[in-house]
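Handoff note, outgoing to incoming analyst
You'll be picking up this chain. Sequence as last confirmed:
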Amino acid sequence: MAFDDKKFFMPPAVFAPGYFWFLNDKLDDDKLVAQLEDMAKSGARSVCPHPIPKEFRASFYSTMEPAYLSKAFFRKMRLIHDTCERLKMNCYLYDEGGWPSGGACGQVYAANPEKFARRYLVPDGQGRYKILVDAPDPAMSAPYPNLLTPGVTEKFLALTHQQYFKYSPKHFGKTLCFTFTDEPAGPQHRIDKLPWTEDFFTEFKKRKNYDVEPFIPEMLRFSCAPQIIAALTDYSDVVSQLFVERFLAPLKKWCNAHQMLSGGHFNGEDEPQNMLFHLHGNHLLRVLRQLDMPGVDVIWRQIYPGIRLHSFPKYASSAANQTGNRHVLGEVFGVYGSGITPAEMKFLVDYLALCGVNTFVFATYPFSTCGDKIQGERPLFGKCNLLWRRLKGFHDYTARISYLAAAGNPAVDTALFFDEATLSEIGVVPRYDEMENIAARLLQRQCDFDYIDEDQLLAAKVSRGAIKIGKAVYCRIVMPTAAKLTAKGRAALEKLQKKGAPVFSSDQINEIPPTLLMAQTDDRLRVRKRKLAGGDVLYMVMNISSATLRVRFTASEKAPVAWCDAETGKRCLAGKAGVWQWRFAPYENAVFLVGEAAKNAAKLPHRPGATLRALAGKWQLKALRQTSVGKDDYENKKSNGSITTVSLGDWRNSLGNDFSGEAQYVKTFDGKDLANAKFLDLGRVCYAAQVTLNGVDLGTRLSPPYVFPLGNALKATQNKLEITVVNTPANAIAATGVLEKWQQRPFENPYEMRERYFERESLESGLFGPVVFKKSIRS
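Most recent structure output, in case you need it:
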């Protein structure tokens, strides 16, 4: 794939971000169409309709009509698909009512409760075990089936996928490109509960050549005896195999037969130490390889700048690289709270793209926030959030960075062994620190890598020192010193080594060459590389710190270098002969094209230089629109407040603690000494800013640096500067009495207190400055 300027400027809709569209009320045709048009207008050219049936969960209040999976429901879905086709939007087929996927919101279980119920092996209190049949409470949540039981997946497909195809066949493979399977779950392993199905012991003996039943009582006591740990590891392995064969493989086969890609993610991918307690066991990479679009979700700050930067999204991108699949899914923002800022949103997109994610579904755009649905799973986007009107630039940026992250083919030459067996060995306190440490050290040295597991060691081949694993080719394998392999795994590794495969220990990481050479190594930078047609390459380089960094790079490709500006969709010449320098703003992600395709790039734009003058003194401040939490819904109203004179700083001192919305700062000034001014720098802003100078719109910035080129707008005489700032809905939600009113409702958001904890960090609002005019200098 060669670099395509037109597709970079306007990527196909599959790379545009979409939102979980929570369908939680009566599905009025006009409202469905209007909301889709609103998303498309805002640059969210994908959408993931997410049914929330009444019977989903007691804690998720919904008044959705028509009934889930009824004929009338599928007619509504067809209207959505037809509208997406007209708007040239990409639409996901979310395969469940609520989540986890696989149960059709209770209807699979209801088809045969006796056969499809989840079953577990549990202690019987007398030193042996008994079979526990799950007895769900429909009043709390929709009953969920046993995904290990034959017939369950076939019933699920018949109720969901096949019906979608019946009503919208022309859209499959066109408007409908991806399915979204969300956290298929049961039965799940617990310390005193083993997942089970009627033929499990037969399947186990067929696959492992011994009878596991005598070991069950000790396994349920979580004995650390070596033979019990070995049996538990085998048990988890067979559970994972059955999950693949009986659920994931049939889903993928159906999707591919209907010109769709199977996509989704699994639960618990951010916590390697707890993977044993999910249906995939410690075999996350195995199940991810069963998806055409493997993914992860990033919720409740599992990744957050300055707090936690984990490499778990690379599990999904590693699986895609090894199976030759292009798309890697990221479900993002859920339970980050309505105080999430555009800068934080951009950071998450950039970091995930750096990890290989290139197809985004954001949370959430609710169909309704009225009545008991007002709390929602936050953040909420759409008319209830005044930032929504400003997010088109962010959506366009996300589409472009996604397109770049998917361009060409991966150029990852290091494979890190994912030590799944060790995770089982010591149960709930697994020894995975070494693997985590190796991953961090590789990334700090700008050595990109993929994860591999024992399945892939067994299938790996070596040719001329190169290690071929599926569609991926690696130069080396890094093995944690404490890694535990089966006898077959050890034999496979030794065979690879005898054939010339380089195998590195954790002590040899410093011998691994970086993906991109820097004049001076800086552990605050991360690098990812993609190969394009004709020998061209893309380097994605991200500053994960709050510091400004100045770096000189030398690529192995001795060719022109162009910066791919994902904000504008333009390319600018940055260097030659594979050498360039770059000044990274805090948390900046920059993508560089190295190769012949970089030749025709434009010159780099000038950047801000020395300060000429700060706009000191007082400003006029006026509230324009305010979001408040009404009795039954969010209310956005024009403000009739008076103009006040303020100093720059937190506007809560003037507009009140609970003001969420838009307010405008106005200042007039003389421009006689600003003839050389080329940029306006607003300094610190909380959180979005749109600038008008003398009636000329200078643009909108959603994240730092809040710098605006002046063009010809500045006058030598009197000037009028208007800066409209938008904060988040967090202040309105934190207003006195709101939580107390919500707690009186019969349906409370189960994530409420966690979201409020996050939201209180975004209450500062307004223009803080300093606002200064600057000269320009060459980049």
